[in-house]
Amino acid sequence: MKQTDQPSAVTRQSRIRGILIIAAIVAVTALLLVFVGQPLLDAVRDPESFRAWVEEKGAAGRLVYVGMVLVQIVIAFIPGDPFEIVAGYAFGAVEGTVLCLLASSVGSMIVFFLVRRYGMRLVRLFFSEEQIDSVSFLKSTPNRNIIYFLIFLCPGTPKDLLCYIAGLTDISPWLWLLISSVGRIPAVVTSTIGGSALGEKNYTVAVIVFAVTLLISGAGILTYRIICKKRAANGKTDGQKD
Fold first, then answer.
1. In sequence order, what are the residues at sequence separation of 6 or more whose Cβ sits closer than 8 angstroms to the Cβ of residue 216?
2. Would 181 disulfide with which of 56, 60, 105, 106, CB 3.0-4.6 Å?
3. Structure pTM?
4. Cα–Cα distance between 207 and 184 in angstroms, integer?
5. H helix runs in 119-182, sequence order
6. Does pLDDT of 5 surpass 70?
7. Among 169, 191, 166, 192, which residue's Cα sits nearest to residue 177?
8. Is the four-CA dihedral 115, 120, 121, 126 of positive or negative sign?
Protein backbone atom coordinates (compact mmCIF):
# COMPACT_ATOMS: atom_id res chain seq x y z
CA MET A 1 0.00 0.00 0.00
CA LYS A 2 2.84 2.38 0.84
CA GLN A 3 4.38 1.87 -2.59
CA THR A 4 1.02 2.52 -4.24
CA ASP A 5 0.45 5.74 -2.26
CA GLN A 6 3.93 7.14 -2.89
CA PRO A 7 3.43 8.13 -6.57
CA SER A 8 0.16 9.81 -5.60
CA ALA A 9 1.91 11.86 -2.91
CA VAL A 10 4.69 12.82 -5.32
CA THR A 11 2.12 13.86 -7.92
CA ARG A 12 0.25 15.92 -5.33
CA GLN A 13 3.46 17.65 -4.25
CA SER A 14 4.34 18.34 -7.87
CA ARG A 15 0.93 19.91 -8.49
CA ILE A 16 1.17 22.07 -5.38
CA ARG A 17 4.65 23.20 -6.38
CA GLY A 18 3.42 24.00 -9.89
CA ILE A 19 0.48 26.01 -8.54
CA LEU A 20 2.79 27.96 -6.22
CA ILE A 21 5.20 28.71 -9.07
CA ILE A 22 2.41 29.92 -11.35
CA ALA A 23 1.03 32.04 -8.51
CA ALA A 24 4.48 33.56 -8.01
CA ILE A 25 4.75 34.35 -11.72
CA VAL A 26 1.31 36.01 -11.63
CA ALA A 27 2.35 38.06 -8.59
CA VAL A 28 5.62 39.15 -10.22
CA THR A 29 3.73 40.04 -13.41
CA ALA A 30 1.29 42.16 -11.40
CA LEU A 31 4.16 43.96 -9.65
CA LEU A 32 5.88 44.60 -12.98
CA LEU A 33 2.69 46.06 -14.40
CA VAL A 34 2.34 48.36 -11.39
CA PHE A 35 5.96 49.54 -11.10
CA VAL A 36 7.18 49.21 -14.69
CA GLY A 37 3.95 49.58 -16.62
CA GLN A 38 3.64 53.33 -16.04
CA PRO A 39 7.23 54.11 -17.19
CA LEU A 40 6.58 51.96 -20.26
CA LEU A 41 3.45 53.94 -21.08
CA ASP A 42 5.20 57.24 -20.40
CA ALA A 43 7.99 56.33 -22.81
CA VAL A 44 5.49 55.54 -25.56
CA ARG A 45 3.30 58.58 -24.90
CA ASP A 46 6.15 61.09 -24.59
CA PRO A 47 9.24 59.81 -26.46
CA GLU A 48 10.79 63.29 -26.41
CA SER A 49 10.95 63.29 -22.61
CA PHE A 50 12.21 59.72 -22.67
CA ARG A 51 15.00 60.70 -25.08
CA ALA A 52 16.02 63.59 -22.83
CA TRP A 53 16.00 61.25 -19.83
CA VAL A 54 18.10 58.68 -21.71
CA GLU A 55 20.67 61.30 -22.72
CA GLU A 56 20.91 62.41 -19.10
CA LYS A 57 21.32 58.88 -17.70
CA GLY A 58 23.75 57.60 -20.35
CA ALA A 59 24.46 53.85 -20.07
CA ALA A 60 21.88 53.46 -17.30
CA GLY A 61 19.21 54.77 -19.67
CA ARG A 62 20.13 52.09 -22.18
CA LEU A 63 19.85 49.41 -19.53
CA VAL A 64 16.43 50.72 -18.52
CA TYR A 65 15.25 50.53 -22.12
CA VAL A 66 16.54 46.95 -22.47
CA GLY A 67 14.68 46.08 -19.26
CA MET A 68 11.50 47.63 -20.64
CA VAL A 69 11.65 45.47 -23.76
CA LEU A 70 12.33 42.35 -21.67
CA VAL A 71 9.22 43.08 -19.62
CA GLN A 72 7.19 43.70 -22.79
CA ILE A 73 8.17 40.33 -24.25
CA VAL A 74 7.59 38.33 -21.06
CA ILE A 75 4.27 40.06 -20.37
CA ALA A 76 3.09 39.13 -23.81
CA PHE A 77 -0.08 41.22 -24.05
CA ILE A 78 1.92 44.49 -24.06
CA PRO A 79 2.41 45.49 -27.74
CA GLY A 80 6.03 45.71 -28.84
CA ASP A 81 5.92 47.93 -31.93
CA PRO A 82 5.76 51.25 -30.02
CA PHE A 83 8.96 50.39 -28.14
CA GLU A 84 10.79 49.74 -31.40
CA ILE A 85 9.74 53.18 -32.64
CA VAL A 86 10.76 54.74 -29.32
CA ALA A 87 14.20 53.08 -29.67
CA GLY A 88 14.76 54.79 -33.02
CA TYR A 89 13.47 58.10 -31.64
CA ALA A 90 15.59 58.02 -28.48
CA PHE A 91 18.80 56.34 -29.69
CA GLY A 92 18.82 56.74 -33.46
CA ALA A 93 18.33 54.05 -36.09
CA VAL A 94 21.60 52.13 -35.60
CA GLU A 95 21.88 52.11 -31.81
CA GLY A 96 18.14 51.71 -31.43
CA THR A 97 18.17 48.65 -33.68
CA VAL A 98 21.07 47.07 -31.79
CA LEU A 99 19.49 47.66 -28.37
CA CYS A 100 16.07 46.48 -29.52
CA LEU A 101 17.41 43.30 -31.13
CA LEU A 102 19.59 42.54 -28.10
CA ALA A 103 16.70 42.95 -25.68
CA SER A 104 14.30 41.02 -27.92
CA SER A 105 16.72 38.11 -28.27
CA VAL A 106 17.29 37.88 -24.53
CA GLY A 107 13.56 38.20 -23.84
CA SER A 108 12.73 35.49 -26.38
CA MET A 109 15.16 33.08 -24.71
CA ILE A 110 13.83 33.87 -21.22
CA VAL A 111 10.30 33.05 -22.38
CA PHE A 112 11.53 29.95 -24.22
CA PHE A 113 13.20 28.47 -21.13
CA LEU A 114 10.35 29.46 -18.79
CA VAL A 115 7.87 27.60 -21.01
CA ARG A 116 10.25 24.64 -21.29
CA ARG A 117 10.19 24.50 -17.50
CA TYR A 118 6.52 25.23 -16.72
CA GLY A 119 4.75 24.20 -19.93
CA MET A 120 1.23 25.00 -21.05
CA ARG A 121 0.22 26.36 -17.62
CA LEU A 122 2.43 29.38 -18.24
CA VAL A 123 1.27 29.86 -21.83
CA ARG A 124 -2.36 29.98 -20.71
CA LEU A 125 -1.59 32.88 -18.39
CA PHE A 126 -1.15 35.19 -21.37
CA PHE A 127 -3.02 33.62 -24.28
CA SER A 128 -6.52 32.29 -24.87
CA GLU A 129 -7.22 28.75 -25.99
CA GLU A 130 -8.24 30.12 -29.39
CA GLN A 131 -4.88 31.85 -29.84
CA ILE A 132 -3.00 28.74 -28.75
CA ASP A 133 -5.03 26.48 -31.03
CA SER A 134 -4.40 28.79 -34.02
CA VAL A 135 -0.67 27.98 -33.93
CA SER A 136 -0.78 24.49 -32.40
CA PHE A 137 0.24 23.04 -35.78
CA LEU A 138 3.71 24.54 -35.25
CA LYS A 139 4.41 21.93 -32.61
CA SER A 140 4.47 19.09 -35.14
CA THR A 141 4.47 20.33 -38.75
CA PRO A 142 7.49 19.04 -40.78
CA ASN A 143 8.34 22.54 -42.03
CA ARG A 144 8.00 24.09 -38.60
CA ASN A 145 11.36 25.88 -38.46
CA ILE A 146 10.99 27.42 -41.91
CA ILE A 147 7.45 28.57 -41.11
CA TYR A 148 8.65 30.06 -37.82
CA PHE A 149 11.34 32.01 -39.63
CA LEU A 150 9.01 33.26 -42.38
CA ILE A 151 6.44 34.40 -39.82
CA PHE A 152 9.12 36.21 -37.83
CA LEU A 153 10.32 37.99 -40.98
CA CYS A 154 6.92 39.63 -41.45
CA PRO A 155 6.21 42.78 -39.42
CA GLY A 156 2.93 42.67 -37.53
CA THR A 157 2.80 38.93 -36.83
CA PRO A 158 2.31 37.74 -33.20
CA LYS A 159 5.94 37.04 -32.36
CA ASP A 160 5.38 36.96 -28.61
CA LEU A 161 2.83 34.16 -29.02
CA LEU A 162 5.32 32.22 -31.13
CA CYS A 163 7.99 32.65 -28.43
CA TYR A 164 5.69 30.95 -25.94
CA ILE A 165 4.66 28.19 -28.35
CA ALA A 166 8.29 27.49 -29.30
CA GLY A 167 9.01 26.47 -25.73
CA LEU A 168 6.48 23.66 -26.10
CA THR A 169 8.32 22.15 -29.07
CA ASP A 170 11.55 20.17 -29.33
CA ILE A 171 13.34 22.92 -31.28
CA SER A 172 16.90 23.45 -30.04
CA PRO A 173 17.56 26.64 -28.02
CA TRP A 174 20.37 27.73 -30.36
CA LEU A 175 18.22 27.35 -33.45
CA TRP A 176 15.40 29.23 -31.73
CA LEU A 177 17.81 32.03 -30.80
CA LEU A 178 18.87 32.30 -34.46
CA ILE A 179 15.29 32.31 -35.78
CA SER A 180 13.93 34.77 -33.21
CA SER A 181 16.91 37.14 -33.57
CA VAL A 182 17.47 37.21 -37.34
CA GLY A 183 13.77 36.99 -38.09
CA ARG A 184 13.05 40.17 -36.11
CA ILE A 185 15.51 42.31 -38.07
CA PRO A 186 13.17 43.62 -40.84
CA ALA A 187 10.43 44.70 -38.42
CA VAL A 188 12.86 46.28 -35.95
CA VAL A 189 14.86 48.10 -38.64
CA THR A 190 11.80 49.65 -40.27
CA SER A 191 10.41 50.76 -36.90
CA THR A 192 13.67 52.26 -35.65
CA ILE A 193 14.30 54.05 -38.95
CA GLY A 194 10.82 55.54 -38.75
CA GLY A 195 11.34 56.50 -35.11
CA SER A 196 14.71 58.05 -35.91
CA ALA A 197 13.15 60.10 -38.72
CA LEU A 198 10.51 61.37 -36.30
CA GLY A 199 13.22 62.32 -33.82
CA GLU A 200 15.04 64.27 -36.53
CA LYS A 201 11.71 65.85 -37.57
CA ASN A 202 12.12 64.36 -41.03
CA TYR A 203 8.41 63.69 -41.31
CA THR A 204 8.41 62.86 -45.03
CA VAL A 205 10.79 59.94 -44.51
CA ALA A 206 8.87 58.86 -41.40
CA VAL A 207 5.55 58.79 -43.27
CA ILE A 208 7.06 56.83 -46.16
CA VAL A 209 8.72 54.29 -43.84
CA PHE A 210 5.59 53.77 -41.74
CA ALA A 211 3.38 53.54 -44.83
CA VAL A 212 5.62 50.86 -46.36
CA THR A 213 5.79 49.07 -42.99
CA LEU A 214 2.00 49.17 -42.73
CA LEU A 215 1.62 47.61 -46.17
CA ILE A 216 4.18 44.91 -45.39
CA SER A 217 2.54 44.27 -42.01
CA GLY A 218 -0.86 43.92 -43.66
CA ALA A 219 0.53 41.42 -46.13
CA GLY A 220 2.36 39.58 -43.34
CA ILE A 221 -0.73 39.33 -41.13
CA LEU A 222 -2.84 38.14 -44.08
CA THR A 223 -0.23 35.51 -44.97
CA TYR A 224 -0.02 34.42 -41.34
CA ARG A 225 -3.79 33.98 -41.11
CA ILE A 226 -3.90 32.04 -44.36
CA ILE A 227 -1.18 29.70 -43.11
CA CYS A 228 -2.97 29.17 -39.80
CA LYS A 229 -6.34 28.50 -41.45
CA LYS A 230 -4.81 26.15 -43.99
CA ARG A 231 -2.95 24.19 -41.33
CA ALA A 232 -6.05 24.06 -39.13
CA ALA A 233 -8.10 22.74 -42.05
CA ASN A 234 -5.44 20.11 -42.80
CA GLY A 235 -5.47 19.09 -39.14
CA LYS A 236 -9.24 18.58 -39.19
CA THR A 237 -8.99 16.58 -42.42
CA ASP A 238 -6.30 14.35 -40.93
CA GLY A 239 -8.43 13.87 -37.83
CA GLN A 240 -11.40 12.76 -39.91
CA LYS A 241 -9.23 10.29 -41.86
CA ASP A 242 -8.03 8.79 -38.63
1. 154, 155, 156, 186, 190
2. 105
3. 0.72
4. 21
5. 120-126, 129-134, 144-153, 159-166, 173-182
6. no
7. 166
8. positive
